[in-house]
Amino acid sequence: MEKVINLNMPSSSDGMSRIDGRLKVTGAAKYSAEYTVEGLTYGVLVGSTITNGTITSMDTKAAEHAPGVLAVVTHLNAPKVPGFQPDPSKPAPKKGPLKIFDDNKIVYNGQPIALVIADTYERALYGASLVKAQYNKEPHQTSLQESIGKGYPPHGDGLYKRGTEDAWKLAPFKVEQEYIVSTNTHNPMELHAIIARWDADDKLTVWDKTQGVKATQNDVARLFKIPVHNVQVNSKFVGGAFGSALRTWPHEVAAIVGAKVVKRPVKLVLSRADMFTSVGYRPYTWQKIAIGATADGKLTGITHEAYGQTSAYENFTEGTVRVSLNTYACPNVNTKYNLVSLNVGTPTWMRGPGEATGAFALESALDELSYDLKLDPIELRLRNYAEVDPESGKPYSSKFLNEAYQMGADHIGWKERKQEPGAVKKDGWFVGYGMGGGMFGAYRDGATVKATMMTDGRLILQTAVSDIGPGTGTAMVLIAAEKMGIPADKITFENGESDLPDAPMQGGSGTTSSVGSAVHDACAELKQKFQKLIGNGDTDNPDYVQVLKQHNLPLLEVTTKSNGGDERKNYSMNSWSVHFVRVLVNAATGVVKIDKVASVADSGHIVSPKTARSQVVGGAIGGIGMALMEESIIDHRYGRYINNNFADYHVPVNADIPQIDALFVNKPDPYINPMGAKGMAEIALIGMAAAVANAVYNASGKRVRELPITPDKVMA
Amino acid sequence: MEKEESFHGPDIEPDVEDSSRRNFLKQSSLLTAVALTPVTALKAAEMRVDDKVASVFEKLPLKMEVNGKQQNLSVEPRSTLLDILREQLDLTGTKKGCDHGQCGACTVHVDGKRINSCLTLGIMMNGKKITTIEGLAKGDQLHPMQEAFIKHDGFQCGYCTPGQIMSAVACIREGHAGSEQEIREYMSGNICRCGAYPNIVNAILEVKDGGQTV
């Protein structure tokens, strides 16, 4: 008899353990840099020391002569990447991905200018230290604040309006404030890494850290103009990514080019410093938000503008201001979204991408408004609770956020909260409570799964999807176990290789919905196939082994593509979260301690309780990092990151984190997919930074509008 | 226009005017002893003879016991224990997360004590007993800490996990697992970016309270 799991605060031991747990605790799980490949060589990148300009000459002789060095690849000698070359039949695009080693232009500090390849890592690293470049240095700009006047809308006019523009101005109660989210760097624990091996002139195998092996396969095939099926991409274990492996980066191209040059496989592992410049980040964003409300707390208008930084060569956009369009019922909303082009690498989606940035502003401003109105912050939100999507007017496929508010408030002990800031002080620490909400679209993409039943009773599921840590395989096995009526330990899940059936990127909290649906549908089809064989459609769970034996079959398999229907046309589909935090703020030093956390997810049916809990806990901790410590700092005089390591770029450590209550509404969404499961990864983080900021205000009376909330800002 | 020296990460070399292998040849005692003339030396450099000589020179013998197995190796003095484990012994369970002793992913036991293998040169390990994550289980039987990490889901992506487990075992052995608070403090050298900290603490508490020998 299985233990009934109370999802209204599961413990860390509840639910089925991860299917790959044993591999992970024994060190047997192999990540991209850990494959034994014959004839392997090692590549180390050399970064530019200027921030804008051109390389005028390079001295690579010393490096080339260093022991063990096989090649020094630079723009002067690199074989041309076909996909980088302009297509004469099309107008040259103004912007596009960085073309590594294609020309002598430098557009950000640390931009790779050479790849040194040697027979050992140590020799490559030493060789890299010998590469010298001369530059023609041009003025650079890395500060968004100083360049905000040069902001531009990335597409169209960047404007959105419903109802009356700037209606907040006419309201009796209003808040108008500026908020800043600093640059955050994903910094997964696994350094981005690739092993590239040319198997023939037009055939390539890579072991690569990627959130989507199919996407990487397509990118590489396009760049090197080789057939897609000649590119094999393997990414069976990914040591975290949080968005940093959602696209193909220059270092991946560099390794592939390098392998071509030395005619041997090349392993390239980024350094932790490279991780700040080479694989994206959450962009520094300045926002201004204004909210108007009636005396009884009804929102009358929201005006929200944002300026996010991007690189000089690409426009990176995210849904920063979208939170103001569709989180709360408000008749008048206008937003404006701008980019500022700087001499930095291109940002990329980082967990809860733009929504996390936007929610910091919106949820902080609402909190500020609640104090003006002398209204409980939860009550303010309930008075503006959207029953239908305020942007599209469509009904929600499911929304139980009100229940989530109640659950979270009960668990944190919200009734202990004093409306007056600074009212509670214990042993030199102010005590305060805060809350902040998050929402993120709930998606379902097409995915294909192959399901094979073997005569020993094993069911094998195969699909290309990556598993960067959420426990995708575990969730897929649980879906299949339920559908097939067999124990989970009879099911294996194979993934992360590009020759497996098609699956989308692991991103945007969509995997359980997309791939889970395909697992569900494949199992349904496989079961039907069995039922057809025995000519009895009524047998709910046939004895699969018996049927195979009776029909003298070695196995029975199906490959099923699952797309879903047009549910999305009729419903607005979203996941929701609310985070509650109790903080202690030291009255003498301004140090903020997280004392208690209750994070509640309305993410539909919970497929895998143990891994879902970890997902929510992990997202909450990511949000705490964003709130209190994470900031990638550039010295704008030089345009260079000055804290590009784990000693200076602070992320939460064990001592920063208390026990965290992860709570689930756990009510299935009737429309999104057969499981009723919505996404969880993003909402686990979105809203947390505001919850912390709001708690700091409630505790100390200090409103910090620029993240991270470091002691200097609390004491200022 | 200005000249700038390029650099990579921590390995910034002083700006030696000519730090090619020729310098190495001039400085090396063996070649001083055989008193090569400059012309010969130059020729040798062109032939890349220096590489071959250097590869002999630059390696030292290293004898250490890894997971109960004696290893007789020849390593460069600059090779870290971490890189030797991963690249020469194919013990990739020990992870590289920063190479600066800042993240704990590379934690192994040396004579029973936890250390950051990325901050440890291999040649310092002569005669030492190293235990890596691969050496923690007894055959198929997992170490209680490994079991507890699985049970309490003390990880998501799994990359920091070997280091966390090696640290967790040491944390109990050191007598630093007396309370949740103490565990948090003494496990703070191991970063988990997925945020499994509460689960890690629960796993350690279970092993500690279970009283099993670690």
Overview in brief:
The complex is a heterodimer of chains A (716) and B (214). Chain A folds into three domains: 39-138 and 190-239 and 245-278, Aldehyde Oxidoreductase, domain 3, CATH 3.90.1170; 356-441 and 570-715, Aldehyde oxidase/xanthine dehydrogenase, molybdopterin binding domain (Aldehyde Oxidoreductase, domain 4, 2-Layer Sandwich), CATH 3.30.365; 445-563, Aldehyde oxidase/xanthine dehydrogenase, molybdopterin binding domain (Aldehyde Oxidoreductase, domain 4, 2-Layer Sandwich), CATH 3.30.365.10.
Can you give keywords for this protein?
heterodimer, A: 716 residues, alpha+beta, Aldehyde Oxidoreductase, domain 3, Aldehyde Oxidoreductase, domain 4, 3 domains, seven-stranded mixed β-sheet, five-stranded mixed β-sheet, 26 strands, globular, B: 214 residues, Ubiquitin-like (UB roll), DNA polymerase, domain 1, 9 helices, 38% helix, elongated, disordered N terminus
Protein described:
The complex is a heterodimer of chains A (716) and B (214). Chain A has 3 domains: 39-138 and 190-239 and 245-278, Aldehyde oxidase/xanthine dehydrogenase, a/b hammerhead (Aldehyde Oxidoreductase, domain 3); 356-441 and 570-715, Aldehyde oxidase/xanthine dehydrogenase, molybdopterin binding domain (Aldehyde Oxidoreductase, domain 4), CATH 3.30.365; 445-563, Aldehyde Oxidoreductase, domain 4. Chain A is α+β, with helices and mostly antiparallel strands and 716 residues long. Helices cover 26% and strands 24% of the residues of chain A. The model of chain A has no long low-confidence stretch (mean pLDDT 96). Chain B is of the alpha+beta class. Chain B has 3 domains: 19-47, no CATH class; 60-135, Ubiquitin-like (UB roll) (Roll); 144-210, DNA polymerase, domain 1 (Orthogonal Bundle). Chain B is 38% helix and 13% strand. Chain B contains 9 helices and 6 strands. Chain B has helices at 21-27, 29-33, 38-47, 49-57, 81-88, 144-151, 161-173, 180-186, 197-210, and strands at residues 2-4, 60-66, 69-75, 107-110, 113-116, 129-131. A 5-stranded mixed β-sheet of chain B has the order 3-2-6-4-5, with helices on one face. In chain B, strand 2 (60-66) and strand 3 form a beta hairpin. The longest helix of chain B is centred in the C-terminal third of the chain and has 14 residues, at 197-210. Chain B is elongated, with a radius of gyration of 22 Å. In chain B, 48% of the residues are buried. Chains A and B meet through helix 1, strand 1, helix 2, helix 3 and strand 6 of A and strand 1, helix 4, helix 5, helix 6 and helix 7 of B. Strand 6 of chain A pairs antiparallel with strand 1 of chain B.
